[in-house]
Amino acid sequence: MAEVTETQIAKFINDPNNLTKELLEGYVMAYKDKVALGAENIVVRKNPKDTDKVAIVTLGGAGHEPALSGFVGEGMLDASVVGDIFAAPGAPRVLEALKMFKRDAGILLVVLNHAGDVMAANMAVKLAEREGIKVKILLTHDDISAGLDAAIDDRRGLAGCVAVYKAAGAAAEEGKSLDEVYEIGERLNKNMATLAVAMKSCTHPQNGATIAELPDGIMEIGMGQHGEGGGGRTELLSADETASRMIEQLNKKLNIQKGEKVLLYINGVGATTHMELLIVYRKAHQLLEELGAEIAEGKVAEILTVQEMAGFQMIVGKLDQDHVELLTKRKSDAPYWTVCG
Amino acid sequence: MAEVTETQIAKFINDPNNLTKELLEGYVMAYKDKVALGAENIVVRKNPKDTDKVAIVTLGGAGHEPALSGFVGEGMLDASVVGDIFAAPGAPRVLEALKMFKRDAGILLVVLNHAGDVMAANMAVKLAEREGIKVKILLTHDDISAGLDAAIDDRRGLAGCVAVYKAAGAAAEEGKSLDEVYEIGERLNKNMATLAVAMKSCTHPQNGATIAELPDGIMEIGMGQHGEGGGGRTELLSADETASRMIEQLNKKLNIQKGEKVLLYINGVGATTHMELLIVYRKAHQLLEELGAEIAEGKVAEILTVQEMAGFQMIVGKLDQDHVELLTKRKSDAPYWTVCG
What is the DSSP letter of B8? Predict the structure, then answer.
């Protein structure tokens, strides 16, 4: 790779080696009443949950802000274990977090399905169990771009994780057992489908490399978290046509029935404007209503970003009544997912 | 201007003439329990405030989402009157909103200082008063890029408006009189200073025109809401150096004393990543603490965007104790400014 000069990375940063450290410091300063650094690269609640309740922990690389640490807070995550930019945290750090949250009630470890994260989580859990730590993994795999019959291993975890954090977090706050919290989260996880679309790539903030080159005037449906191709390239489509194609694909997976309650989130991944996201949301919402769905929760936000990539993820989930309650009626005081309930 | 083809505008949109209509429809669908369209281009609360309380209304062009309509909700705005992309709504529409919120308690009309918005507001208020509507204008002018001694007319209203909405909205919810609500908002408004920095321009989503060409490798401190130049161009600086220069300028205006309470918001205007915004926040927070300030509220968010422009606004405000309470301890249920209090 060619040497990268600082001006090639046109970003407001300092030493590229310190990105993760500095962004986490900035985050816990900005929201000092809600979050803190429990250890290096481990973000925890400022006011911990009672230890007789199940703890919810997650892990993943930095560079996707506000994910994942933005969802640490009362009613959601107890801890987020952060890797370097686009990189999984190592198993030792995950283990460190599991030790911090050791409790009889147990820990739910929510893992987005990406090879490095899964490997770190599995190894950490194995070591944790040897030390008598009670922990259960919930693997999210909402991406449907690998195809409807793809093995779970091939279905990546995208921004749908945020609903699992919220539902499981609220259930844990109510004092439910680890098995119950897992069941609630996993039932939602299974009923969720996400599809990503990208229009313009981004640069890696440490080495300036362009990730997933996309020619001008071309969009791709089915991109992964970092812009890995996964679906079809096409010329740019209108917002309505894009939404239509995506809802059609998502519904092949979900098979929504009349009267079913659903969530619909549009996750902006970076440079795509809120204006566009709202316009896309409009059509997706209309199409879901035409399918007979009742939209119990809508959100348009930057949930899990990929630097300054242009595009978005469309997330649809079928909700049972308990999920509706947990998602919309319970308080979450996480800085980037605040629900007064 | 050259003819614009659809592919020149690489955005997820439909007919460029329908942007505002469609984005507002998407918005009120996504947050249907909180907001609704009271009339064309007028966003109101789904559950209106009691009519014996002061109403808070604002106005401004679209294209800056989530501003301004994202701040309509319990504890914040009662209505947002929306113009077309980057354009003020006309006086007739503002008048229509004032008529909708006519009440003995009165209306506070918060206007960001931009010529078109001010003209529309003044004309609407003149007509409203003839019809016996009690209304008072609060003009925000937090931008300091025109210089410290600039006349108020030359100081634009930037994203600092959101704090005025929150403080005035909370005061109105408590049942304070129009004069009291105005005084609380205006006292905060006077003690607020904002500086913008841009690194990359954006395209107008209707005609594809580039707004404020900025050469690669150049940044400009003191850009206006739409990228109008107002300050100095410089080669790209590090996040820390950028924050240092900005805090120095902002403090020339604010002259922060030891022990004073302040708010610090970093508003991402579009393509600049949350990662960068958090890194910039970190240094600004540290510098304010070195000045002896106590940071009573921090936020890092896309508050008022300018399409896919790269850059941010740094907002610092000196807070009296009542402002701290109103900003941080009172509930706001606006979709894009949720505070459980």
Answer: G
Examine the pLDDT at A6 and tell me if it is beyond 80. no
A282, A302, A340 member nearest B274 (Cβ): A302
Name the minimum distance, in Å, from the CA of A57 to any CA of chain B. Answer: 21
CATH architecture of B192-339: 2-Layer Sandwich (3.30)
* Per-residue pLDDT, A295: 98
Give SS3 for A287: helix
CA distance B329 to B315: 20
Known catalytic residue at A274: no
Tell me which chain A residues have a C-beta less than 8 angstroms from the C-beta of B272: 11-12, 308
Residue ranges of the domains in chain B?
A: 6-190, 192-339
Contact A229, A213 (CB under 8 A): no
| CA pair distance A3, A14, nearest whole angstrom | 17
What angle, rounded to 10 degrees, do the helices at B91-100 and B115-130 form?
50
Distance from CA of B1 to the nearest CA of A (A): 21
pLDDT number for residue A147: 84
In angstroms, how far is the first alpha carbon of chain A from the final one?
Answer: 50
Q: Tokens in use for A323?
A: 């999920």
| pLDDT at residue B196, rounded to an integer | 94
Give the residue carrying structure tokens 């950490």.
A124
The answer to whether B261 faces chain A, any CB pair under 8 Å, is no
B173-192 average pLDDT score: 98
- A/B interface, count of CB pairs below 8 Å: 201
Amino acid, res. B3 = E
SS3 at position B148: coil
More confident residue, A232 or A199: A199
- Taking CB atoms and an 8 Å limit, are B278 and A13 in contact across chains? no
Average pLDDT over chain B, rounded to an integer: 93
Return the pLDDT at B181.
Answer: 98
Determine contact: A8 vs chain B, CB below 8 A: no
Q: Are A106 and A82 in contact (CB under 8 A)?
A: no
Read off the tokens for B73: 């909700």
Closest of B169, B179, B170, B192 to residue B136, by C-alpha:
B179
Instruction: State whether CATH 3.40.50.10440 applies to domain A6-190.
Output: yes
Helix B239-254 to helix B274-290 angle, to the nearest 10 degrees? 50
| Residue with token string 């990543």 | B273
Q: Is the pLDDT of residue A248 over 50?
A: yes
Each residue of A124-160: pLDDT tens digit?
Answer: 999 999 999 999 999 999 999 988 888 888 899 999 9
